[in-house]
Amino acid sequence: MDNLQIRKINKKEDLIRVSEIEKNSFEYSYPFSLLYSLYNSFPNGFMVAENKKNSYIVGYIIATIEWGNGHIVSIATDSKYRNRGVGGILLGSIENYLFKKYNVKNIILEVRFDNTNARKFYYKRGYFDKRLVKDYYDDGSDAILMVKKNPNIVNNDPIIVNMW
Fold first, then answer.
1. Global pTM value
2. 44 belongs to a structural domain
3. How many domains does the chain fold into?
4. pLDDT tens digits, 37-57
């Protein structure tokens, strides 16, 4: 999208719009209170994709840093703007930010095991399956823990994820 601008969120109204997209994108969405708490703990991990013409937020990505790794908490695009590259631009932006500014060793995320479209999206961007996480979601569904190594770190250290 030519009219797209990626920026950090900077006001409560942005977080309200992020929450709207979250609710419309996922059957089991994060409540506003959790998004607000995550924002207060690491505001630099919140980026939005905004239409420059009308300042309308069309997508978002939320990340944290845990145990030296970046962690993608959530990413979504407004249904009217899907399949236009917004998610890829958001993911690339947060990866660049976390890898370069914070020098995280890896970026990790969890995705529903049966969400093949999302898994393909991440495979195309250099993520690989690390392990199956049984009963990860509230409904008892399994997740795949996916990882992308920092391309700026040249070593063969094992990937250690201490969060679980």
1. 0.90
2. yes
3. 1
4. 999 999 999 999 999 999 999
